[in-house]
Amino acid sequence: MQNVLIVGGGKGGTSLLKLLLQSDSFKVIGMIDYNEWAEGVLLAQKERIPTGREWSSFLTEVVDIVIDTTGDESVFQKIRAKKHNHTVLIPGTVAFIIASLLEDKEELIDTLQQESYKQELIFNATHDGMIAIDEKGIVTLLNESAEHMTNLKAKDVVGKHIHETMPSSELIETLHTRRVDKDQKFTLDNGRNIITSRVPLVDEKGHLYGAFSIFKDVTDVAHLAEELTNVKELQTMLQAIIQSSEEAISVVDEKGHGILINKAYTKMTGLKEEDVIGLPATADISEGESMHMKVLKTRRPVRRVRMKVGPHKRDVFVNVAPIIVDGILKGSVGVIHDVSEITELTNALKRARQIIRTLEAKYAFEDIIGSSEAFMLSIQQAKLAAKTPATVLLRGESGTGKELFAHAIHNESDRKYNKFVRVNCAAIPESLLESELFGYEEGAFSGAKRGGKRGLFEEAHNGSIFLDEIGELSANTQAKLLRVLQDSEIIRVGSTVPKPIDVRVIAATNVNLERGITEGKIREDLYYRLSQIPIQIPPLRDRKKDIKELCDHLIRKINADYGRNVEGITGRTLAYLQSYDWPGNVRELENVLGRAIIYMEMNEQLIDVEHIPTLERKKKVAPNDEKKVATDKSLAVLLEEHEKKILAQALAENKGSRTKTAKQLGISIRSFYYKLEKYQL
C-alpha cells in the first residue's frame, strides 16, 4: 500500500480524496490546504486523516506519492525541490484531468446503466449523432441522428468493427489513449463536417469497456448559434423597450394567458407579475369585459375602451391589438392609460391657458439693469418690500421702469404663483373705471352683462394688482380704493354687500401726490395708505453710469426683435449718450437705440455717433437774461396763466395732436383733456 499526501483541498483535491478512499492500494496520510475550512480538509477530518496548512512537515520519507492540486507553479517547484528521490510528484493539471474524467465517467455510467429501451428512446430523441463501441472496437450504438449524418443504417453497423463501416473514426484511438476529446472538428467518410466529443468508457474500477462519441453537423451548429443570438438580441431589445416605456403594457398569448407586464403596468394597477403571468386575461379586470379576449376572438384591434382594473379599481382607457406572425395569431398586446392622469393633464392645460390669457408678471429683479448707488438702493428697498404684504408706492418719472419693479416685487413675493393684474388708471375712462376695478351686479346700469361681472380686484384675489398712474383716480374711486386698503373688501357697482378679498396693491405714479393733496385732488388718508413703503426710482440723468449696461441689454433685446446682430456701441457714442439728460429716461434710450439700429447697414456691428438721431437739449438761460415776471397777481393765477401758455405752445408744436402733446408734456391724456377744457383751448 502506497502512502499519498494531497496538497490542495479544492475541487480537484476533494475528488481525488474521494477516489483514494475507495481504493485498497493507497492510503492518504495527509490533506494540506491554507484554508482550514476547505471542502477537502473537512472531508479528511471526517475520515480521521491528518490535516494541516503547511505541507513541508508532512513531506517525510514514508510519503510515496505527492499530488499537488493547487495549480500554483511556485508550490509545485518547492515540493519538487524538497521531496525525497523515491517520492512521486503528480502535478495539478493531471489531477484536474483525473477529476474531470471521474465526473464524465460517473455521468456516462449512470446513463449506460439505464434500461435499454429508455436508452434507445433518449438517444433517438436527440438531434445529436451518437456512436458507441466496446473495448474491442465493435459498434454497440448508432442512433437515428447518426444514421442521417453518416448515411449508414444501425442494422448494418451495430455488431461490426467500427473501421469496417467508418474507416476514419478515431474512437479506436480514444480506447488506446483513454483521453477525452471535446468539441473537435472532424470530417466523416461521406465528406460531412461535424463537431464531435469522444469519451472513453471506464467503470469504477478503472476497467475500460468502450468509447463513446457524440457529434453535431457544423451547418446545424452555425444556424443554431445564429438563430439563438438573434433571438436573444431581439428578446433583450424588446424587454428593454417595454420595461423602459412609461406606458402601462400587458401581453397575453394566443390562449389569453398573461406572459408579460412592465413596471408602469404594476405601478398603475397595483398588480405584480405573480398576479397576472400565467393567469387568464380577466385576472386584472375589476369592471368590464376583457379586451384581450375580444381581440383574440375577432383578430381586430380596439381603442379607447373604458374599464376598471386592479384591486383599487383604477379607471383606465385601454388600446389592444392582436399579435400576428406569418398569418398565425400569437397573442395580443394592450396599452393602458390612466383616466385620472388624462383628466389631471387636461385640467393642467386649462390652467396653463388661463394663466397665459391673464397677463402674469414677466420680469424679475434679474431683469432690472443698473448698478449705480441710487438705483441699487431702490432695488434693495423693493426686495425688502416684496417679502411683506404692505402696499408699495413706486414713484418716478415716466420711463424709469416702475412697471418692471412692480413685476419683480410680485415675482419675489409669496404670491408669485397667483395672478398679477395690471391696471392703467389713466387709460380707462372715468365712467368705466369703477366698474372695471370693483365689478358690477346684474342690472347695475344699462348694458350690464347678465349675472354681473367680476372686477379686476376680484380677478387678483390672492395675488397682486398693479395700479399705474394712481394719481389720476377720481374722488369716488379713491374712496372705494381706500376701503379696499383698510378693510380688505370691495363693493360691486349696484350692490351694497361687501365681498372680502386678499389682494396686494402695488401703486405707481409720476406726479407729485403731495401737491395733489394741497390742491384737493388726492385724499390725504389714501395717500398715507398708499405710502406704506414708498420707493423712489431715480431718473436716468441721475444714474448715467448705468447707460453702458443698459445699452448692452437693450441692444440684445432689439437684435432679437429686429433680427439684427449689432454688438454694442463705440466709446464716442457712450460719451455722447452720457452727455444727454434723457427726459424720457430708459424708454427714450430704447427708442433712440432702436432707430439707430434700423438705419444701420447690415454689415455694421457697432453703433457710432453718426447713427444716433440728434438729441434735442434744453437751452440754459443765464440769470441776467431771465425776464422779470409781474407780481401783481396771486401765485395760483400766475401759475395757471403760465400753464395755459405752455399748453397752447406745445399743442401748436405738435400740429394739434393731443396725444403727442400729452406725451411730450409727460401727463396723462385724461389730465390733458381736463386742462384743455379748463383753459378753453
From TrEMBL:
Coiled coil segments of this chain: none
Domain Sigma-54 factor interaction: 368-598
Pfam families, alphabetized: AAA_lid_14 (PF25601), HTH_8 (PF02954), PAS (PF00989), Sigma54_activat (PF00158)
Keywords: ATP-binding, DNA-binding, Nucleotide-binding, Transcription, Transcription regulation
Top-level taxon of origin: Bacteria
Keyword hit for DNA-binding: yes
InterPro entries: AAA+_ATPase, AAA_lid_NorR, Homeodomain-like_sf, HTH_Fis, NAD(P)-bd_dom_sf, P-loop_NTPase, PAS, PAS-like_dom_sf
Domain named PAS: residues: 115-176, 234-278
Protein's name according to its UniProt entry: PAS domain S-box-containing protein
Lineage, top ranks: Bacteria, Bacillati, Bacillota, Bacilli, Bacillales
